[in-house]
Amino acid sequence: MDHVINFDLPTDKDGFIQRSGRTGRTHKGYAMSFYYENDDKSMATEIARIISQNGQESPAFLDSYVQESDYNFGQIQDESAPVEANGYQNNNNDNGYGSGGNGNNDDEWDTPSASESHQQQQRESSNHGATAAAAQPQQSSNPVIPDASADDDWD
């Protein structure tokens, strides 16, 4: 699929990953979701976390709902794990949702860390109300996308 447009957000993170991931299985395409503050506020933290964990920048209006500690939800802190330059421990490739992430361990991505991205977006003005958030692939030959391959039962 080249394009996915979600006129309403799924009620949980797995549904969001499943819908958005369809465009990225061939590493091309776009996923767009309409966000309505009154209806979708409870999903803001999950969506921002998923986008960030996949090396993409989440829109500033989503990050305005997220606290810095929310980006590390589900990660077990290992005292012996080295601390990365961004201040986080890199324990493994586990994204906190029971999978190993998208399997991409390349160090060639020029994406800001979640902390830097979050701080920059906090400085930008927030946009509330009905907003379209586009999750576009990176401008690279191998974009990072949500991993929805675990739920292929009805493809």
From TrEMBL:
Domain Helicase C-terminal residues, every copy: 1-66
Assigned EC number: 3.6.4.13
Pfam family membership, one: Helicase_C
Lineage summary: Eukaryota, Metazoa, Ecdysozoa, Nematoda, Chromadorea
Ranges annotated as spanning the membrane: none
InterPro entries: DEAD_box_RNA_helicases, Helicase_C-like, P-loop_NTPase
Name of the featured protein: RNA helicase
Top-level EC class as recorded in UniProt: hydrolase
Composition bias, Low complexity: 86-96, 113-139
Superkingdom of the organism of origin: Eukaryota
Single annotated GO MF: ATP binding
Region described as Disordered: spans on this chain: 72-155
Key words, A-Z: ATP-binding, Helicase, Hydrolase, Nucleotide-binding
